[in-house]
Amino acid sequence: MAKLQYQGTGRRKHSVARVRLIPGTGKITVNKKDLEDYFGMEIVKREVKRPFDIAGCPGKFDVIATVTGGGFTGQAGALRHGISRALCQADRDAYRAPLKAAGFLTRDSRMKERKKYGLKESKKSFTVLQALIETVFKTILQTSKDSKPLQLQGFLFYKNLQELLKCCLLATYLQQIKTPSFFDILLFLLSK
Question: Looking at the chain, which terminus has fewer C-beta neighbours within 10 angstroms, N or C?
Answer without folding.
Answer: N
